[in-house]
# Entry
Amino acid sequence: MLFTGIALALLWAPEDADQGPSQRIFYLHVPIALTAYAGFAWGAWKALRLLWTGDSRYDLESYTGVHMGTIFGTLTLVTGSIWAKTSWGVWWNWGERQLVLFLVLFLFYGAYFMLRYSLADGPARARISAVYALFGVVLIPISFLAIRLAENFIHPVVFTREGPQMDGSMFFTFCVCLAGMLLLAGALYRNELTGKRLDARLRELREALA
Amino acid sequence: MSSGEKYLAAAYLVFLGALLAYVVIISAKLARIERELGELAELARERHG
# Structure
């Protein structure tokens, strides 16, 4: 589905009269950014489940969700910088609240890994990591709404209260790309989670045989 | 190729490159798990037979 979306974005969607071909980065950059938010939110949701139920399996699920969010967050920053360079002439603009808040969110979850790996494996690490992941989720709506609260911005606002500010074919292409990106993230999440669970089982087996 | 097209190609290639790198990392991890499983199976066979 993602490759269909990319094909639609590159070959079918009409070219933006203002930005030209570089506007097609939108179909990649925005779905990646929304998927990053979804990854962080999923990690926080699993963290909440861990704290609520005490079930340790949610620890690995929360960690994998945050990991997915970080991977897609990195791609958001890279593709966003490329788009900024071609549209605004600069790789980064510190005056843009949404950019800076996304960076803060990204660095916050980057520090999650430092915290996690600085603690010994066990229930205490799972709980502390879960609390940290849960705090970070507060930054998601702030980051998302920042552009709407900003007074002077150059970052475009496409989705307003009046609906998407784009052509129907552009919106359709965007939806296909977003669905494809979320499916890709879901597949990667499952794949990574299975790998980590297999690793844990192997460790148990090695200890049992030692 | 115009400047805008070059940046467009760069953005999509970065994404596809990252996806490819991820697939390579996962493949390496699966190969390691398979090797370790084989070693453990061998160890278990030695212990019990």
